[in-house]
Every structure is written in C-alpha cells, then in structure tokens.
Amino acid sequence: MAQIAGLSDTTIPEPLTFVLKKDWASAIEKEKQMCEKKVDDACRAVRRVIAPSSSKELLKSYIMRTSRSGNEIKALTLAYRQAPTKSLKTQILSIYALRFTSRELKAIHAPFEKLSDRQIKRARSHAKTVGVRLPVENIPYHRVRIDKSKLEHFLSFVDQPYFYQDVSFGAKTVNLNYGKRMVMPNVVRTVGRSTLIEQYHQRCREEEYQPLGKSTLYRILKVREASQRKSLQGLKCT
C-alpha cells in the first residue's frame, strides 16, 4: 500500500504482457515484482475513474478502513475463541458472517479451528432473524396446574365401560413413579374424542358442574391414549 501511495496518478499504465500461472510461493522475485507493478497500475486507474479529483484521498481512506477492519476481525475471532458457549459463539460470528463468503470465513478461522458450513448458516440466520450480535430472547412459559378434583371427575366419566372395550391381543406396560411396572391389556375406545368430550360437557351442564376446557380435555385424552374402533359397516365379505 505504501508503494501504491507513492506513485503518481498521472502515470499511464503499460499494457498487460505478463500473467502469473504458478503459485505465488513458487514464483521468482522478478515475477512477483512485475505482478505488484501491475496491481499498482490497476489501483491508480481505478482511483482515477472513481474519484478523478480525490484519488489520493480515496486511497488513504481505503488503507485506514482496511486496517481498522483487519484489527476488528482479529478482535472478533479472539472473542469467538474465548466464548464459553455455542450460543455466544453464534452471536459473535453473526457480526461478520454476512461480510465474507463461506470460504473466506473458513480461512479466517483456519489457524485455530475448523469452521463448518452449519455454523456459518446458523450465524447468518441469527443475523437476519434475531439481529447482529443480539442474544436470543428467552420467552418464559408458565405451567398451569389442573384442578385435581376436576381431573378426577373427568376421568371417572371416561373410565366407564361404555366407552372402552378390552381386546384379546396385545398389552401395554405402564412404568409407575416408584419403579413398579404394570402390564395392562390393550383397550379400544368405542367413541371418538370429540363425541366423548361433548357427552361429558352435556352431563356437566345437566349437573351444573363447571368442567375443564375442551382443549385441556383433548390433551388429557391424548396422554391417556387408546385405539379407536373403526366402523366396518357396509363392507362385504367375499
């Protein structure tokens, strides 16, 4: 950069007559100098096109910005290495994940660890959905306890033999909290959930009893699952 700053903007660049076709490490010193000279010429030409009257000021600003960006990336990668959790690493990586390609990000992190495509995608998604360097908001969920008397009232209704029927094959094993296991035969529910809940609410209206909500009753029946008998009416045996 210092070499570029010292060149005159009025110098006319020479035509490109040499192309480096080997690795930079295997190139000789003369070839490297020729390439650097062509880069200087290209930089001067671009500066004259972008800012004809302020090409030198443009170069100085670019050099300072590049230097600040390099120091910033070093600080961020150091913070990334020292982050104690994966979520914090994702927050830090989201700061610069959108500024570089996946290959460039992997090259930046290569000296101390291997960065996966999944980590890069997660950081970019975090930057777009949650926000750059912002933590994920933890939404508290409050559990509401079911009234035990109302639960027992509903279970006593659905446990009637009218709604269930034992089958002659299969069994279920129930693990109790104190370690004991109970083997129970499979049962078939003779009515659907909606019909069962509607009949229960109808009975509660007749008894002027305040029952649990329908959504809660559906969840209870989902936990207390049983097979449902399917109607075979209309089928003919051959």
Strand order of the largest sheet: 1-2-3
Query: What's the total helix number?
Result: 9
Q: What structural class is derived from the secondary structure elements?
A: mainly alpha
Low-confidence stretches: 1-7, 227-238
* Residue share in β-strands: 5-15%
The N- to C-terminal Cα distance equals 91 Å
Q: Tally of extended strands? A: 3
Helix content: 40-55%
Order of SSEs: HHHHHHHEEHHE
Largest sheet report: 3 strands, mixed
**Could you tell me the mean pLDDT?**
77
Radius of gyration: 37 Å
Q: Which term fits the overall shape?
A: elongated
Which SSEs are present, and which pair or pack?
Layout: H1 2-5, H2 29-50, H3 55-82, H4 86-96, H5 102-109, H6 117-129, H7 148-158, E1 164-175, E2 181-189, H8 193-207, H9 214-223, E3 227-228
Parallel strand pairs: 2-3
Antiparallel strand pairs: 1-2
Helix pairs in contact: 2-3, 3-4, 4-6
Description:
The N and C termini lie far apart (91 Å). The protein has nine helices and three strands, in the order αααααααββααβ. Strands 1-2-3 form a three-stranded mixed β-sheet, with no helix packed on it. Helices cover 51% and strands 10% of the residues. The protein has 238 residues and is mostly helical. Among the domains are: 62 residues, no CATH class; 81 residues, no CATH class.
